[in-house]
Amino acid sequence: MGGQRVVGLIGGMSWESSGLYYSLINQAVARELGGLHSARCILSSVDFAEIEALQVAGDWATAGQVLAEVARGLQAAGADFLVLCTNTMHKVADAIETAVDIPLLHLADCTAAAVHAAGLSTVGLLGTAFTMEQAFYRDRLAGHGLTVLVPDDDDRAEVHRVIYDELCRGVIAPASRRRFQDVIGRLAAAGAEGVILGCTEIELLIGADDCDLPVFPTTRLHVEAAVAATLA
């Protein structure tokens, strides 16, 4: 069967956001092709509890090995390119890329392109503590010429808590939305021209209508790039 390249989705981190990926990709393909069309994709979903334990332990090497094996399986199953359905685990993107012969569509690159297209250069970054505090994601964005601001210690801790204790468990709390809005307001006061929703679950809580700043929803941006690639 022709007409679409096959998307290999590395998911399960968490399954809440992977479900959003799957829905958005199929909705976008249906809009583009019409009728009963849907996306040609293969989803391999890991047990997030196992990955989260490796995150907490700082054992990124083992986490990279786990996801590299998933990537090899997707390639063997017929995927033409890979989409890693999580911001944080782009920490091990290099391990995935070296394990396969098909390309990985890097989420931070898609996001940086959208920020540039909006004419902005200084952005706030929300995500897990790993994404906000470690260099792998911020440096990738900086490599595209962006200045990246992150919340202060207390705000980072609260954003991280909401992601793992609420959003990854399907809990959407209006009080947490208000706290995120306060964090975004402080980033704006520090000079952010827009804000990157740099965790796939955050889009379950916050959208453009909830913020005074332009928002860059990484899941949706990643999906747009994936759909463009599959239909190219």
Describe, in plain words, how this protein is organized in 3D.
- The chain is an alpha/beta fold.
- The protein has ten helices and seven strands.
- It has helices at residues 15-33, 48-57, 60-77, 93-99, 107-117, 129-133, 135-142, 153-165, 174-189, 218-231, and strands spanning 7-11, 41-45, 81-84, 122-126, 147-149, 194-197, 215-217.
- The strands form two sheets. It has a four-stranded parallel β-sheet with strand order 5-4-6-7, with helices on both faces. Strands 2-1-3 form a three-stranded parallel β-sheet, with helices on both faces.
- Strand 1, helix 1 and strand 2 (41-45) form a beta-alpha-beta unit.
- Helix 1 packs across helix 10 (218-231), helix 5 crosses helix 10 (218-231) and helix 8 runs antiparallel to helix 9 (174-189).
- The radius of gyration is 17 Å and the shape is globular.
- The two termini are 15 Å apart.
What features would you highlight for this structure?
single chain; alpha/beta; 232 residues; 12% strand; 10 helices; 7 strands
DSSP summary: helix tally: 10
What is the H/E string? EHEHHEHHEHHEHHEEH
Oligomer status: single chain
Structural class: alpha/beta
Helix % is 40-55%
| Coarse shape | globular
